[in-house]
Amino acid sequence: MPKRDDIEHILIIGSGPIVIGQACEFDYSGTQACKALREEGYKISLINSNPATIMTDPATADRTYIEPITVESVEKIIIKEKPDAILPTLGGQTALNTAMKLVEKGILEKYNVEMIGAKYDAILRGEERDLFKKTMKEAGIETLKSYEVHNLKEAKEVAEIKLDFPIIVRPSFTLGGTGGGIAKNMEELLQIAEGGLKASLTTEVLLEESVFGWKEFEMEVMRDKNDNAVIICAIENMDPMGIHTGDSITVAPAQTLTDKEYQIMRDASLKILRFIGVETGGSNVQFCIHPETGRLAVIEMNPRVSRSSALASKATGFPIAKLAAKLATGYTLDELPNDITKETPSCFEPSIDYVVTKLPRFTFEKFPSADHRLGVSMKSVGETMAIGRNFKESLQKAFRSLEIGVDGLDLKAEKKINTKKLDDYLNTTCTERTIAIKVALKKGYSIEKVHKMTKLDIWFIDQILQIVEIEDELIKSTDMDKELLLKAKRNGFSDEQIGQLRNIKGIDVRKIRKSFNVNPVYSLVDTCAGEFEALTPYYYSCYASKTEIKKSNKDSVLVLGSGPNRIGQGIEFDYSCVHTVKALQEMGYEAIMVNSNPETVSTDYDTSDKLYFEPLTFEDVMNIYEAEEPIGIIVQMGGQTPLNLADKLLEAGVSILGTSPENIAKAEDRELFRQLLNNLNLKQPESSTAKSLDEAKTIAKRISFPIMIRPSFVLGGRAMMVAYEEEDLEPFVNAAFEASPNHPVLIDRFLENATEIDVDLLCDGENVYIGGIMEHIEEAGIHSGDSACSIPTFTLKDDIIKNIENACASIAIQLNVKGLMNAQIAVKDDDFYIIEVNPRASRTVPFVSKATNIPLANLATKIIMGKKIKDLGLLNYKPDIRWYSIKEAVFPFNRFAGVDPILGPEMKSTGEVMGIDKSFEIAFWKAEIAAGQVLPKTGNVFLSAKDRDKNWIGQIGKELNEMGFNLIATSGTAKVLEDNNLKVKMTNKLSEDGINVIDLMKNNEVNLLINTPSGPVARVDEVKIRSEAILRGLPIVTTCSGAKATIKAIKTINSSEWNVKALQDFHC
Question: Can you tell me the distance from the alpha carbon of 87 to that of 45, in angstroms, rounded to the nearest whole number?
Fold first, then answer.
């Protein structure tokens, strides 16, 4: 049956900001859906608060609303746009939960809007734990022993009478296991359950028997309204039950399933979709199997496109999100052709003749005090995927794709393991466990012993042992002959890895490999194991006999992506890469994309002309370069990852397009950059570079504290710190040298209470276009990626702005920038100081592009390829901006219990949101709501300020009091408030007897906290208070400037209406 013609206009709900458990896979899914439905002639309206997405580009949907994803926002859009249907299954848990609330409040019925993709009852049966369990019982499918509870009293009763410890806590309607955990005793249970009840949309959690150590599998399934159903792929978790699937190493196809087990699981998956009621789209079903008895049970299912759906799509080439969108409008699987082959229908189940491995990417270095052990609540911020002809090749390629300083499962990886604690690594669910297994096997541990300690399947342990055995051959072999080298390469060993084992350089291994004519070939991802011809050029490397690359007659350009998401390098850079690809295509070039991240739009097989799913290393990029012979490589769009390869690629004869690596180094190297500024007579905070701790101490004495410590060649402010006194110096400087070995550390005077400015610009080597000047809301000293900022500026004088523009232009021309450049500047006492410059795409490019309607990455690419600013119509052009755009950061503190949410020069945010309005205050309010900071309009505010902030806390208190808020404070701050004739409720300090602020939070008697830190090393009480606020989802402000903006926003929203407006209307 063809598509429905009784609906014309569909509203799609996006997933909002990048958070742990819900990352850029939903930009990929949502973008696919928008394209697919517009192809069918439907009008598409979209709500998403994340400006860093391709999805929110004004060209992706007909009407794009960058607004908070709340029931109130969606209702306003429905009133304005009058859609016929709403599609919530492609925006993760955020979209699903929002849609459920819209149904429950009667809003969809009121405005006659149909929910498509999944019905309310089906979502309820899939997401509500107890109802899911009852439905599975009706279907005759075993679930684990579990009980639903709605409060702590019920939780305690279940633990005392019905379940033995350890107990798994699973909240309903959450993402990435938010609020869940494994409780080993009653105290842990009550603590986890309290957080789980708070996190659950329906205030309910499931207490479940622990199956820690069982094998875990996922089935990615699609079903249409005619009951056609297909299994896209079976995914096996290498890590056993007890670790969230997002934090697990996963493999497709499943490696250790028997055919009988697979068929049982397949039949059960299809039955589950029928009983749940999923009729039009994709679902992910998770199972566990006891490794000895074979007992099989279903754990849960997602009645929507999920994180695993993106992985399954990239692993097989089967476009799940695209087809899910089309199925939602009435198509059936047999009516939709396979995009890869063009001749088989989508009801053919994919078949793959390679192995795909996904590895999670963690950034615990940003949160050293966090618990690094893994559990049922997800902690990874990104992932990488690799494809090989066997598991060993796939695993090693995935490890070198992680960009953690290893070249595979190699000797450098082994240095991460403290061998004295080897058994601890094996017995605990830590991130280094796979490496520890290899070390243990090298030390003579038997496969059986490792299996007993880790609960990993023996097959996987044996695969790691085979890697160890090949290592041994490489070490012991007198001469490395062609046969041994080919064997190593076919099992995923990189040139660098082989070089470590042979005590030679990786580049020398490359020369030996070339002399033997041992080169990779490239195979197609074709969905059908070669049975039909693949027409979509989506490649992976292997060491087989025949390459499947199809050359075109066009000039080609290689674009290097940004690799796995991490704090400091995320979706914003993928956005720039996608725009680069599109610009190249517009100019008639063949655009070739290289990336290793399965979550992204850039790794969608129909984004670029050719896609190589490969690690971003010198070896892998060079191999592709030699196979494709492009006219050059673009390295400035993918963040620090491609820039780190630029010098080595240049040495190998590669043409680097755009700003030269030499000029990039002038900006990145702290000493060279300081000399450049001196030559231009531009001010920088008093500074000097140190190559040792002793030099750093000498410089600090001369400059005087407080000082900023900055390593070179890092992203996300890695290891940047403000030292307020001498005792801070040694640990901070040592950390900077560790973050960037062999490079000097810059030590400069920290400008307290300065205003920080970000500038994004385009330069063609002769002329400059200022793309956007952003004023930070938080004061200088907080990383630009973590600070809220505004376009246009809101306090700067016109002459300062003009001087900053001129300074940035002179730097860009001096560096001979070809493309994008970002500058960070501090303004203090009507003067400005250059902090740093990055001659590449910055993380603010998507935000500036949305705020100004100027596609910076697209235009930068055209400059890179030879266009001039005047050719692009940008000479002397200034966009007419009559509204405020506010970017706000989103943080993962709720994932790391006990971590202090205080901000500083090292970046900690995972994502961002945008608020846009003609009023600065309302734009700021929208951004805060979108970021999860639900600002109260009335209620109780806890105020606590360090001594030097007490002068403004009185004014804040007055404004809150005038709005009707009740003030709460401990003795020191309370005295300041009382001195300002304000009524304040005094509460005890945590160290004192009696009711304190944590008690008040637990009793729901606090609605907002304004709490500035006492110093660089926070007091224990402060950390406890701020952590408790994060746990309870309470809005918390930790800076003076942030507090002032918050108060203004609340005051404005209390006295005026706010509305929604499409991006297209702002830019008309």
Answer: 10
- Within the chain, which residues score under 50 in pLDDT? 1017-1018
Tallying the residues shown for the chain, one arrives at 1068
Q: Are residues 27 and 167 in the same domain?
A: no
In sequence order, the 6+-apart residues with CB closer than 8 A to the CB of 89 are 95, 96, 117, 118, 281, 282, 303, 304, 305, 324, 328
- What is the gyration radius of the CA atoms in the chain, in angstroms? 28
Same domain, 164 and 71: no
The CB-side HSE value for 921 (13 A sphere, CA atoms) comes to 16
Q: Where are the beta strands (DSSP E) in 581-706?
A: 590-595, 610-613, 632-634, 656-657, 687-690
pLDDT of residue 86: 98
Q: Is residue 138 part of a domain?
A: no
**pTM for the model:** 0.93
The last residue of a domain, from among 631, 657, 683: 657
Peptide bond into 166 cis (omega under 30): yes
- The torsion angles phi and psi of 746, rounded to 5 degrees, stand at -90, 135
pLDDT score, position 345: 65
Selection from 476, 904, 501 nearest residue 721 by Cα? 904
Q: What is the CATH number of the domain that holds 636?
A: 3.40.50.20
- pLDDT of 935 reads 95
3-class state of residue 764 by DSSP: strand
Range of the structural domain that residue 435 is part of:
356-518
Cβ neighbours around 263 below 10 Å, total: 11
User: Do residues 256 and 178 make contact, with C-beta atoms less than 8 angstroms apart?
Assistant: no
Domain shared by 831 and 944, yes or no: no
CATH number of the CATH domain containing 178? 3.30.1490.20
DSSP string, 891-923: --GGGSTT------SS----EEEEEEESSHHHH
Q: What is the pLDDT of residue 1033?
A: 87
Q: Do 641 and 784 reside in the same domain of the chain?
A: no
Q: 94 by DSSP, 3-state: which?
A: helix
Q: Is the peptide bond before 345 cis (omega within 30 degrees of 0)?
A: no
Residue 529 sits in the same domain as residue 543: yes
Give the residues across from 75 on adjacent strands. Answer: none
169-210, pLDDT tens digit by residue? Answer: 888 766 666 778 888 889 888 888 888 888 777 788 888 888
What is the 3-state composition of the chain as percent helix, strand, coil, each rounded to the nearest 5?
Answer: 40, 20, 40
What ranges make up the beta strands (E) of 789-937? Answer: 789-791, 818-828, 831-838, 884-890, 911-917
One-letter amino acid at 195 equals G
Cα separation, 759 vs 509, whole angstroms: 43
Output the DSSP codes for 965-996: PEEEE-HHHHHHHHHTT--EEE-B-TTSSS-B
pLDDT for the residue 529: 54
DSSP state of 17: S
Pairs from 972-975 (Cβ < 8 Å, separation ≥ 24): 972/947, 973/943, 973/944, 973/945
Cα separation, 266 vs 1064, in Å, equals 45
Judge whether 598 lies within some domain.
Answer: yes
Model pLDDT, residue 177: 66
- One-letter amino acid at 862 equals K
Same domain, residue pair 750 and 799: yes
Do the Cβ atoms of 136 and 296 come closer than 8 Å?
no
In DSSP terms, 1048 is beta-bridged to none
Out of 180, 210, 240, pick the residue that ends a domain: 210
CATH of the domain at 1031: 3.40.50.1380
Domain annotation covers residue 941: yes
- C-alpha distances (whole Å) from 620 to each of 195, 498, 616, 626 are 44, 15, 7, 10
